[in-house]
Amino acid sequence: MNDFKTIFESRYTWIEGFMRNVRRYSNKPAMIFPEKDKTWTYKELNEDCNRLCNALVADGVKKGDVVMLQMLNCPEFAFAYIACHKLHSVCCPVSFRLSEGEMAFNIDDSKPKVIICCKSKKESVLEAISLASHKPERLVVIDRPTDELATSYEDYVRDSSADEPPFTCEYNIYDETTRLYTSGTTGKPKGVALTSINEVLSAHDVMIHFPMSYKDVTMNTTPWFHRGGLHCAGPCPAFYAGSTIVIMGKFEADTTLKYVSRYKITFLVGVPTVLEELADEQERMEYNISTLKGIVTMGSPLERSACIRYQKVLTPNIFNGYGTTETFWNTFLRPFDLPENAGTAGASCVDDDVRVVKVYEDRKAEPDDVVATDGTEVGEVIICSPAKSPYIYYGNEEETKKKYYHGFIYTNDLATWDENQFVTIIGRKDDMIISSGENIYPTEIEAVLNMHPKVKDCIVTSVPDKIRGQIVTAYIVVNDDSLTPEELDEYCKQSPNIANFKRPRYYRFTQQIPFNATGKKLHVKIKETAVDDLKNGLLYRV
């Protein structure tokens, strides 16, 4: 048994799976980058990963060191992801939508030794570094000449060997290999420290539920810095399964459908807004997309009418997953569940235990204290996902204790469930806004707006939107009557403390905002008001 434990813990790693595919699928296409008309076989992909890996070794990167990425989906992202697995360093992709102040927070939190970014983010990353206390030892920029502030990626790897890097450490399935950032109810980012075994079993989960094999060609239209981007038909499962991945840097509906036809893509992944645009374009152009075996969507439920349309126009095989950054996906709707169960988040995945428990003001419900399976009683969604969750936030014991309890993560999502344990999400305990698949928290936007000298107070909520799901909406109490919504919009655009996609698109100036008896802002109340104001044309669109 000791031999089994030793072998299992040292060899059942993600990088072992990738290297098996390098050996057995050496000449098979692993990655296609249509933007530059380039294809890598598994042998060629491994060689380019080795060039980066050896450059990082020469820079002193070792086990546990952080390599932070801020870039669109691109080949260099894949190289870095695999290279970090080889070194058992930590690949830390962060949103390319972050403001300089938000990026600086992540830099100070994770203390990366190296940052790799795309050329469009160079100036923003340099500003973030100037704001941060921690200074990385090197900034590498893709598709830019080397200068005194940064090294070009091409120069960084030019003289590096394509041979396997020197063995630098003992591998272990429990070592952290990837760190993804999510936001808590306060809007402060939290690092989700994924281990190698988390990534192996996340890949297995995809391979089970699609199912995915080495014969598939996949494309994820969502950013790889998301858990759903990286782990759902992204680099993690695709390279572990031995399939081929097509890279899309920025989503365009017509380009996506052309790629499906050209590269014979079998699985697409995108948020519901992506499916809507794909359906519109397919109805207009009628591309040959017969190779599609399925489209997977996450981020929000599918309405029944939309689901029926997608099944008719795109593919009968529509999948819908629900989960968190901490746990990947945990409930799943498969084609045979649709359209009857459209609108629900599905039922538990094979290795997960998803429950809806009662909500109390002063404590967490015990995991067995569930609400009735009648489709009407509302409770909180909790998830036990031992295969895909590390059950820890990096360097944040306080938030770890808040979020995890008796082996479950308490999501703050409110939901009902039925006799078959199909979960229907109702809303958020913490009033999180989900716009175009992005998580946005009212409190962080309120903090920025309240820094404007002409703002006395504010409250932020959202209104429904067919395309984005929700649109950020701000109610403002002014202390200077000259203030305009356009001035606030420009202020948010220029602020280093808020990403552009989070800024309000609707405003209404008001005399007062609702508070409860203890002085807390009533986001639930203002959300009801905003829906009525939108219907009555009282919100101002910027």
Structure commentary:
By secondary structure, this protein is of the alpha/beta class. It has a domain at 433-541: 2-Layer Sandwich (GMP Synthetase, Chain A, domain 3), CATH 3.30.300.30. 33% of the residues lie in helices and 25% in strands. The chain has 17 helices and 27 strands. The strands form six sheets. Strands 2-1-11-10-12-13-14-15-16 form a nine-stranded mixed β-sheet, with helices on both faces. The chain has a five-stranded parallel β-sheet with strand order 4-3-5-6-7. Strands 17, 18, 19, 20 and 21 form a five-stranded antiparallel β-sheet that branches. Strand 14 and strand 15 (328-333) form a beta hairpin. The N and C termini lie far apart (65 Å).
Tell me the CATH topology of the domain at 433-541.
GMP Synthetase, Chain A, domain 3
Uncertain segments: none
Structural class: alpha/beta
Rg estimate, integer Å: 23 Å
Overall outline:
globular
Helicity range of the residues?
Answer: 25-40%
CATH superfamily of the domain at 433-541: ANL, C-terminal domain
Largest sheet: 9 strands, mixed
Total number of helical segments? Answer: 17
Distance between the termini: 65 Å
